[in-house]
Write a structure and sequence with these properties.
heterodimer, A: alpha/beta, 8-stranded mixed beta sheet, 14 helices, B: alpha+beta, 5-stranded antiparallel beta sheet, 21 helices, disordered N terminus
């Protein structure tokens, strides 16, 4: 146990397809605890309420009061926050809650982004459900995309906990990346630790990427009622009734399309649009907080589910690159998907033998985790996966069916 | 008529004779059918106002056109997939419409929309005809390019290769920030001149260089986009009222002429961008870099390079006029001066556009880069106008330099190093002398008789008989020895391609082709260009391409690795230029091999980076590459 005094531990709970990481940092007076995310959309053999129970007992101090210094909600996807919907969190004392700037209730851009994203999630949930129930539908693909859409629903209960819940008067910080370079900041809640925010950015381009015009015009086809949560689709007819001719009345035979062509056109104009669905997923992932914690020699990187845009900005910045080259703990982004961890980062930036943790579940989506990425990480880092049981080996000193724990020396 | 005599003198081929007969039978008023048909359109889009500068009449080639309009090359099909209905089709031959240049511009009548997409599409095709020196055969498998002005409810428009159709969406303007539109107003992408011209250009480019839809390097799709924007923007300058208004308003400072330089104003405003969708000179300092990878953004650098050149030429050529005027007039330009300036601007814009389009024939058949385009521009322009009378070529080289666009493998930006290798060591490309000759004669006859008379030869037959050869293959089917021509091509067509193919196989090494890989002759085009000096340039343009079977496409993001060569051949069969882009196995020496290897590495790296950016790949099952390729345009347009 002497080791614990001079080392940081990171515990990855086995939540299935989701993220839940508890970081313990030896402080000057007492141990500091940081919780990064708590959510799942496809549980492991352990149900989320059980994870929450374990977690709360793990953060309970000798006086019987559960305490966490900083709770981080990287972004509002269910697989990162669903666990916060549990009312038992109201008994946990929290000093600070860190959220991306897009969660700021006072920021008009943030408000517009949240609104568009959650409305879009509801519209897409509606169309994919319809698709699922339609005769002769490709249910496999409809289910896949329904899952992607539902992950982006507003998760109101969980978000309410992060915004208003927990015990004590937790301070909410809404964080954004520095305009250029990296700017360290210190928080009273994390005495001695230097933190860096590398994402999300507040630049105009990024905001635009989060609410692309294609999505906002798409949304205008739906009527939604916030109170009843109802969604209605109405095909928008651009011309007056005087222009309506039935197919039988249509006299221009040489212009009639053949049925195959009509089907193709209907496919193009289908509101159940995989392109819009994955774009929404990307947009919400784009709001991910990307955090670095530094203490002594330990440099920990939690990129949430940040995707290409954020990574591209980070890797294009020399100061950020330098900081990342010192990382010795890396939480693998987006459950090991191909587009949340740039190959250059693994091959050119990441230190050899860096400790890496991947919280994931195979089988939910065929390409997650992505095998070439897993192989690249295995070649470069010491990788622990939540879904693969392995013999404990350095730096993973503790491993049980419900979690894996890594130790990073200071 | 001069050309007609020329035709007679050189003995007409069968088809030309047929056409001639038809023409005489049809014309009871002795002369010729009217050459042009006047049609009214919005010069820019409905947002640009109701004044005379925005409601304009354009004159397009007169052809026999059925309701739709449906003509030889363009067929407007007004089907709405969102609401599953057709709208009544406009009949441009209705007497009332003939007397007034078609329907007047209005947003509420779908038939005006049909008329406008038709008119702008024909204008755009005609610009290509003129510049390329041949009639573009846009039809595929006997089917015209179809335009669906109200295809669906979406803020998008794109060319779809499977349907061989351009699909225009409509949508409601932003309720909170609609710009100059009404909140929630319906915006029709088919009423934007720029969107129509842009999409038609995509279709033409796809016809001329189908491999340009395979994103094998970062420039390929960007070139597609930039080029389509260039065509749309330069066509602005042909609307004289708009042009005069802008010159007056900006005091001849074209850099501030937002109506001319902005692309798709209404669309941009309606989607809460507060400005045009794109602008020719958005960012005065922008230079090409690896970081600019999004096709529209990267394409914008190409557009900026060309527009810098355009404005430079305009300023040089009008400096004297403005100096003369400053002694006379006050703050505002004299109307006479405005007229002179706009004539000059329109002329230079047309020359620039022609120069850019003409360069197309001088591009390698595959894996095109911006640098290749510069070299093609320079080479094509030296051929057409060796003296560079307007200074366009010099300005373009300078424009590209300022934007950081440099071709690979050239030692300097002097004309002589930019020009493609002249007089390559290749034997004459000529087969049966009579057939070779007829190929040119037929193309000449067709090119000279555009519009009405062309249509007469096929008026009872919806399939297109063409003599210029645009070949068509579906992706993946080009493993044939040579590819199939369209529809009911005459036997001579395949004879040409067979002859070119045989030539390519025989001289594979000299053409930098790998004899062990399939060789496909993909285009044999006789072209007739009139240089600014009045000189007639007659050439045969030939594309030969091959796909490497030796590599695994999965290593290249599913995009085939291709090589190929473009040949520019004179009337007597002499090969004037050979423009190579070899596979490593087709390279003939160490430097070529090194360049070819580099090209493959570049493709692999680019494809990897692209996959990284694509959110779909996380959730698609299996080979997402195919889907992505198929949907390239759908996902590209109009906005990212």
């Amino acid at each position: 146990m002497t080791k614990a005094k001079s080392a940081i531990s990171v515990r990855m709970y086995n939540v299935g397809f989701g993220d839940c990481f508890l970081v313990r940092i030896p402080g000057a007076k007492r141990e500091l605890k940081v919780l990064v995310d708590c959510g799942t959309i496809a549980a492991s053999n352990i149900a989320m309420p059980d994870v929450v129970a374990t977690l709360i007992s793990d953060v309970t101090d000798a006086d019987g009061v559960p305490r966490i210094d900083v709770v981080v909600g990287t972004h509002r996807h269910a697989d990162h926050v669903s666990g916060f919907g549990d009312t038992r969190w109201n008994d946990v004392e929290v000093k600070e809650i860190w959220l991306p700037w897009t969660e700021d209730p006072k920021d008009p851009h943030a408000k517009a982004i949240r609104e568009t994203q959650s409305r879009l999630a509801r519209a897409l949930q509606f169309v994919w459900r319809q698709k699922l129930n339609a005769a002769g539908a490709d249910t496999e693909s409809a289910e896949r995309y329904l899952g992607v859409a539902e992950n982006a629903l507003s998760n109101q209960q969980a978000m309410a906990m992060l915004h208003k819940g927990f015990k004590g008067k937790a301070r909410r910080r809404f964080l954004a990346a520095a305009e250029s370079g990296v700017k360290p900041f210190k928080s009273d809640a994390l005495d001695g630790v230097t933190s860096y925010v590398l994402g999300p950015s507040k630049s105009v381009d990024v905001i635009r990427d989060m609410t692309p015009p294609k999505q906002t015009t798409y949304l205008r086809q739906f009527k939604m009622d916030t109170a009843s949560q109802s969604v209605e689709f109405k095909a928008f007819e651009p011309f007056g009734s005087e222009w309506v001719v039935t197919t039988a009345e249509y006299e221009w035979e040489h212009l009639v399309l053949d049925p195959k062509e009509v089907n193709l056109l209907k496919e193009f104009s289908d509101t159940a649009d995989p392109g819009i669905t994955v774009a929404l997923d990307k947009a919400v992932n784009g709001t991910s907080l990307v955090l670095v914690f530094e203490l002594g020699d330990a440099v920990l990187l939690f990129p949430g589910d940040a995707q290409w845009g954020t990574w591209n900005a980070i890797l294009g910045d020399e100061e950020a690159r330098e900081l990342l080259s010192r990382v010795n703990f890396f939480k693998v982004g987006h459950h090991g998907s191909h587009n949340a961890t740039p190959k250059d980062f693994v091959t050119d930036v990441l230190q050899n033998s860096c400790c890496a943790m991947m919280s994931t579940k195979t089988g939910k989506w065929a390409s997650i985790p992505r095998q070439p990425l897993v192989q690249a990480l295995e070649g470069k880092t010491r990788l622990a996966r939540s879904d693969v049981e392995a013999e404990p080996a350095a730096p993973f000193f503790l491993r049980s069916s419900s979690f894996v724990e890594a130790t990073i020396d200071l | 008529m001069a050309l007609l005599r020329f035709n007679k003198a050189v003995s007409l081929t069968h088809k030309a004779k047929e056409r001639e007969k038809m023409k005489i039978k049809k014309n009871k008023y002795a002369f010729d059918l009217p050459k042009r048909r006047p049609l009214r359109i919005y010069a820019l889009d409905p947002m640009a106002g109701k004044g005379p500068s925005n409601h304009v009449t354009v004159h397009v080639e007169n052809e026999l056109v059925k309701p739709g309009p449906s003509g030889e090359r363009i067929k407007v099909v007004d089907y709405n997939a969102t609401t599953n209905r057709y709208y009544p089709a406009v009949d441009l031959n209705d007497t009332n419409l003939l007397m007034q240049g078609g329907l007047s511009p209005m947003e509420s009548d779908p038939r005006f929309h049909q008329q406008m997409v038709y008119a702008v599409a024909i204008r755009t095709l005609e610009n290509f005809d003129k510049a390329l020196g041949r009639r573009i055969q846009i039809s595929r498998r006997g089917k015209q390019l179809r335009l669906l002005p109200h295809a669906f409810n979406e803020a998008n428009a794109y060319y779809d290769t499977r349907l061989h159709a351009i699909l225009f969406g409509y949508f409601q303007a932003d309720p909170n920030d609609p710009g100059d539109n009404l909140p929630g107003q319906t915006v029709f992408t088919c009423l934007s001149h720029d969107i129509i011209a842009h999409e038609v250009t995509h279709a033409v480019v796809h016809r001329l260089r189908r491999h340009l839809l395979e994103p094998s390097n970062v420039d390929v799709l960007a070139f597609h986009e930039g080029f389509a924007d260039l065509v749309a923007l330069f066509q602005h300058f042909s609307f004289s009222e708009v042009l005069r208004g802008q010159i007056l308003q900006t005091g001849s400072n074209l850099r501030k002429a937002h109506a001319l330089l902005g692309l798709a104003q209404q669309f941009g405003h309606a989607t809460a961008m507060g400005k045009a969708l794109r602008s020719a000179l958005n960012d005065p300092g922008i230079r090409l870099s690896d970081k600019i990878a999004q096709p529209h953004e990267r394409g914008a650098v190409l557009v900026a390079a060309v527009f810098d050149a355009f404005i430079k030429v305009y300023e040089t050529r009008t400096a004297d006029l403005l100096r003369l005027a400053h002694g006379v007039s006050g703050a505002q330009l004299h109307p006479d001066l405005v007229n002179r300036l706009s004539t000059e601007a329109a002329r230079i814009a047309q020359s620039m556009l022609t120069t850019c389009i003409r360069a197309f024939d001088y591009l390698p058949p595959v894996d095109v880069t911006f640098g290749d385009f510069l070299r093609a521009v320079v080479t094509a322009d030296i051929e057409a106008s060796p003296e560079d009378e307007l200074g366009i070529r010099a300005a373009l080289i300078e424009g590209f330099r300022l934007r950081g666009i440099f071709p690979e493998g050239v030692t300097s930006l002097a004309e002589e190093s930019l020009v493609w290798e002249p007089n390559p060591d290749l034997p004459r490309l000529i087969w049966n002398a009579q057939e070779f000759f007829n190929l040119f004669v037929d193309a000449a006859a067709q090119f000279s008789s555009s519009g009405s008379s062309v249509l007469e030869s096929r008026r009872d037959n919806d399939s297109v008989t063409s003599m210029s050869e645009e070949y068509e293959v579906d992706a993946g089917s080009d493993s044939d020895i040579h590819t199939h021509a369209d529809g009911d091509q005459a036997d001579t067509t395949t004879a040409h391609s067979r002859a070119v193919h045989a030539y390519a196989v025989k001289h594979a090494a000299k053409l930098r082709l790998d004899p062990n890989e399939t060789i496909a002759a993909q285009g044999v085009h006789p072209v007739f260009r009139v240089a600014p000096s009045g000189r007639l340039v007659i050439e045969l343009v030939v594309q030969i391409a091959q796909k490497s079977a030796a590599v695994n496409p999965d290593d290249f993001g599913g995009v085939p690795v291709r090589g190929g060569t473009t040949l520019i051949v004179s009337f007597d069969g002499t090969v004037k230029y050979a423009i190579y882009k070899p596979l490593p196995s087709g390279a003939q020496n160490a430097p070529e091999r090194e360049a070819a290897d580099k090209r493959l590495i570049r493709q692999a790296a680019y494809r990897q980076a692209l996959a990284m950016k694509d959110p779909a790949s996380a959730y698609a099952n299996g080979a997402f590459g195919d889907d992505e390729l198929r949907a390239t345009f759908k996902n590209l347009h109009l906005v990212r």
